Amino acid sequence: MSQDTKVKTTESNPPAPSKARKSLPVLDPSGDYYYWWLNTMVFPVMYNLIILVCRACFPDLQHGYLVAWLVLDYMSDLLYLLDIVVRFHTGFLEQGILVVDKGRISSRYVRTWSFLLDLASLMPTDVVYLRLGPHTPTLRLNRFLRVPRLFEAFDRTETRTAYPNAFRIAKLMLYIFVVIHWNSCLYFALSRYLGFGRDVWVYPDPAQPGFERLRRQYLYSFYFSTLILTTVGDTPPPAREEEYLFMVGDFLLAVMGFATIMGSMSSVIYNMNTADAAFYPDHAQVKKYMKLQHVNRKLERRVIDWYQHLQINKKMTNEVAILQHLPERLRAEVAVSVHLSTLSRVQIFQNCEASLLEELVLKLQPQTYSPGEYVCRKGDIGREMYIIREGQLAVVADDGITQYAVLGAGLYFGEISIINIKGNMSGNRRTANIKSLGYSDLFCLSKEDLKEVLSEYPQAQTVMEEKGREILLKMNKLDVNAEAAEIALQEATESRLRGLDQQLDDLQTKFARLLAELESSALKIAYRVERLEWQTREWPMPEDVAEADDEGEPGEGTSKDEEGRAEGTP
C-alpha cells in the first residue's frame, strides 16, 4: 500500500475518542432515585397549583413581586423539561424484567397520553407576554397538566412511609386547603368583577382603612370561603345572580367535600383498627367471655394486664399471620434478620447449616408471660424448648419461692426434651420449675416443628444429637448402659429390617419370574388359538354340505357314518 493511500485512509477514518461519552443511566421506576425525583417534582407542581391562581386573582401580588415570579416560573419550567428527560430514561417492566433499552423506552413513552400532557404543559405560552404584558399569569394555566406527577409522588410516598395513615390525613388536609385556596381566589376575582363594596356579600371597598392591604384581602377571602365550604353559616346573603350561582356551586362542592372527608377518615380509622387487630390479639372477645363465664376478678385482672402490656410495649404474638402473604423466601429473610441472632445463641444450634437455621427461624413462636406465671413445671412433658428474648425467669423450688438460679436474655432451656437422645435418664420430662419474674418475652420451638425440619437435614440431626449427648454427660443425666442397650436394640431392629427387606426382594424376584412365565404361557395359548382359527377357516361351511346331500351326491365333507350307511344299503 502506498503512502498516499495510507494518508487517505487515515483522513477518512478519524481515530475514536479516547474516552467514550457517558449517557444518562436508566432509572428503575421502583428505585430510590426515581422516588426522590418524584418528590422533587412536587414543588414545581404545587407552586403552579397554589401561586399561579393566586397571582391571577390578586393583581397586587402579581405586580409587587414580578421579578421573583418570573424567576420561579422559569425554574419550574426547567424542572418540567428535566422531568421529560427523566421520563425518556425511566425503564418499565416487561414480563417481570426491567427494560433498559432506551429506544424501546422512548418509543413506549411517546405513544402514551403522559407524553402529550407533558408537551402541552411546556407549550411556550409566555410568548404572548410580548403582546399582553407580563402581568397575565393566566397564560401559564397549561402548567396544571403536570398534576398527575403530584398524585404519583403521593402514591409512592404512601407505600414507603412508616406512617401511611398519618400521611393520608395530611394529604387530605392539603387537598382541602387547595380547594379553599382556589375558592377564595375565585371569590376575590368575582368581587372585583362585580365591584368591591357594592353589597354586603362581595369584598369590602379597599378604600376603607385596613382593607387595602394584600394580606387582609387574602385572609378575608380565605375566611369567607371556609365559612361557605364548611356550611357553618353566618355568611352575608347573596344579592345578585352571579353571587347566587357562586353560593350554589360552593354548596354542592361542600357536600362532595364532606362525603370525601367522611369516606377518607372512615377508611383511615378502619385501616388503623385492622392494623391493630392484625398486630395484637382482640381482647374484647376474651373480656366478654370471662364476664359471661364469671371468671374471678383476680384472674380477669391478670388477663387484662397481659393485653395492656402487649399494646403499650408494641409486642406481637402472631408474627406468622402478619407475614403470611409474603413469598416464602422473602418471609424467611425477614424472619432471619429479626430472630437469627437469638436462635444462634442456642448451643445445640451453633455451627449448623445456614439453611437449617432459616427453616427453624420460621418455626419460632413468640410468647409473652406475665409476672409470677409458670412457663413449665417439674415433671411436665416437654414438647417445646424456649429461648429468652427479653425479661428474667427464675428456677424455683416446688414451693415457688426459693430461687435456685435466674435466667436472663439470650439464655434457653428445654432443648434436651425435644431431641430424642438415647440414654436420657429424665426422658422428655421437665426437671425444674421455671417461673417468670416480670413480663418475659420468649421464643418457643415445638418438638414437631424441629422434627419436621430435621427430616430434611439428617446430618444436622446427628450433630445436634451429639451435642445434646455431651450436655447430658456434663449434667450426669446420660445412662451409658441404657444408651448402649438402646443402640444394640436399634441395631438388632435394623438387622431384622434388613433381613425382611432381603426376603421381600426375594419374593418380588420370584413373583416377577412367575409373572413372566404366566405372560409367556398366555402368549403361547394365544398363538395356538390363532392357528386353530386359521385351520377351521379351510373347512367347508354347513350350508354347502346340506346342498350336496339334497342333490344325492355325497360331498367331500360327508361324515364316515353316512358313508357306512350308504355302503350297507342294498
UniProtKB/TrEMBL annotation:
GO annotations of cellular component type: intracellular cyclic nucleotide activated cation channel complex; non-motile cilium membrane
Record field: compositional bias (Acidic residues): 544-554
PROSITE patterns in the record: CNMP_BINDING_1, CNMP_BINDING_2, CNMP_BINDING_3
Regions of compositional bias (Basic and acidic residues) in chain numbering: 558-570
Domain Cyclic nucleotide-binding residues, every copy: 348-454
TM ranges: 34-54, 172-194, 244-265
Its membrane topology: Multi-pass membrane protein
Cited InterPro entries: CLZ_dom, CNG_cation_channel, cNMP-bd_CS, cNMP-bd_dom, cNMP-bd_dom_sf, Ion_trans_dom, K_chnl_volt-dep_EAG/ELK/ERG, RmlC-like_jellyroll
Keyword hit for ATP-binding: no
A molecular function (GO) term: cAMP binding
SUPFAM superfamilies xrefs: cAMP-binding domain-like, Voltage-gated potassium channels
Keywords annotated in UniProt: cAMP, cAMP-binding, Cell membrane, Cell projection, cGMP, cGMP-binding, Coiled coil, Ion channel, Ion transport, Ligand-gated ion channel, Membrane, Nucleotide-binding, Olfaction, Sensory transduction, Transmembrane, Transmembrane helix, Transport
Reactions this protein catalyses: Li(+)(in) = Li(+)(out); Na(+)(in) = Na(+)(out); K(+)(in) = K(+)(out); Cs(+)(in) = Cs(+)(out)
Residue ranges that the Swiss-Prot or TrEMBL entry lists as coiled coil: 475-524
Subcellular location: Cell projection, Cilium membrane
Family the UniProt entry places it in: Belongs to the cyclic nucleotide-gated cation channel (TC 1.A.1.5) family. CNGA4 subfamily.
Name of the featured protein: Cyclic nucleotide-gated channel alpha-4
Top-level taxonomy: Eukaryota, Metazoa, Chordata, Craniata, Vertebrata
